[in-house]
């Protein structure tokens, strides 16, 4: 039988990178973690195995969070296997690839909007329906993974991606105020340049090293450095923090 305290955390896109680091650190902080992934079951299972080896509780759950039907199934399955929801980390995201705006295709734009914006909003909707005291829920916390690109604009690389993260920031502020009196805190973490597979997936594995000199701290960050901020925002230590966008970017 799953436990009945609301300590189940769904982390979308948790098979690698920032999501995997959040899943591991949140499990150490006492969360039972639903490790969502889209394609790479082996990587998600490895994250779950590492959490269990460290004494934590986790389940790998497949689901494309750009699709509403998969999102609905993810929330049902997470609560069935792990118990009542207490938190959500909207982490899954893609860039849509490098392209100046005049070279952007409608297909790439649709894909990045469907995951980074619509997917995050629909996941938050499912979380609020379960967490808000307005619906008889226990309260809880949502953290959206934005990007410093929302502020810098991504010019010459991926303005379309940066714009989706601007939407995430605005959504964070608005939803935070909407549910603030209902026991639900909503915050965002905006990472700067972080060493993950995201850069290689866009054909630029050396991007973190190449851009490091332009960062005040002269280096890219690690997924664990981002996860520390996310897990703090999820925790009772951040009990008076909502509608905040926490930048973790080495001073960029
Ligand atoms: P990553 O290494 O490319 O990992 C992406 C994760 O998302 C993978 O676990 C992938 O799982 C999953 N995913 C992709 N599409 C999905 C979908 N449709 N449904 C469910 N899961 C899906 O990315 P990352 O660098 O860790 O980035 C994580 C978040 O941080 C993103 O929102 C990104 O925009 C943001 N961010 C990253 C950086 C950076 O420099 N890395 C900077 C600022 C913000 P599968 O492999 O199974 O598909």
From TrEMBL:
One of its GO terms (molecular function) is oxidoreductase activity, acting on the CH-OH group of donors, NAD or NADP as acceptor. One of its GO terms (biological process) is fatty acid elongation. CDD domains: SDR_c. This is Glucose-1-dehydrogenase. It comes from Aliidongia dinghuensis. InterPro entries: NAD(P)-bd_dom_sf, Sc_DH/Rdtase_CS, SDR_fam. It comes from the Bacteria. Belongs to the short-chain dehydrogenases/reductases (SDR) family. Keywords: Oxidoreductase. It holds the Pfam family adh_short_C2.
């Amino acid at each position: 039988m799953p436990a009945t305290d609301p300590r189940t955390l769904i982390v979308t896109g948790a098979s690698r990178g920032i999501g995997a680091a959040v899943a591991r650190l949140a499990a150490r902080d006492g969360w039972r973690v639903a490790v969502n992934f889209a394609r790479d079951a082996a990587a998600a299972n490895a994250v779950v195995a590492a959490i269990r080896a460290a004494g934590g509780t986790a389940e790998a759950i497949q689901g494309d969070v750009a699709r509403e039907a998969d999102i609905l199934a993810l929330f049902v399955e997470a609560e069935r296997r792990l118990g009542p929801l207490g938190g959500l980390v909207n982490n899954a995201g893609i860039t849509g690839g490098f392209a100046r705006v005049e070279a952007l295709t409608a297909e790439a734009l649709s894909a990045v909007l469907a995951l980074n914006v619509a997917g995050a909003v629909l996941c938050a909707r499912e979380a609020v329906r379960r967490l808000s005291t307005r619906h008889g829920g226990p309260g809880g916390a949502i953290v959206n993974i934005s990007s410093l690109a929302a502020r810098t604009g991504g010019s010459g690389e991926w303005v379309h991606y940066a714009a989706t993260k601007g939407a995430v920031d605005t959504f964070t502020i608005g939803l935070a105020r909407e549910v603030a009196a209902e026991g639900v805190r909503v915050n965002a973490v905006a990472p700067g340049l972080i060493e993950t597979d995201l850069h290689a997936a866009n054909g630029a594995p050396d991007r973190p090293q190449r851009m490091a000199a332009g960062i005040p701290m002269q280096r890219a960050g690690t997924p664990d450095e981002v996860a520390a901020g996310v897990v703090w925002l999820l925790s009772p230590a951040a009990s008076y923090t909502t509608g905040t966008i926490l930048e973790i970017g080495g001073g960029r």
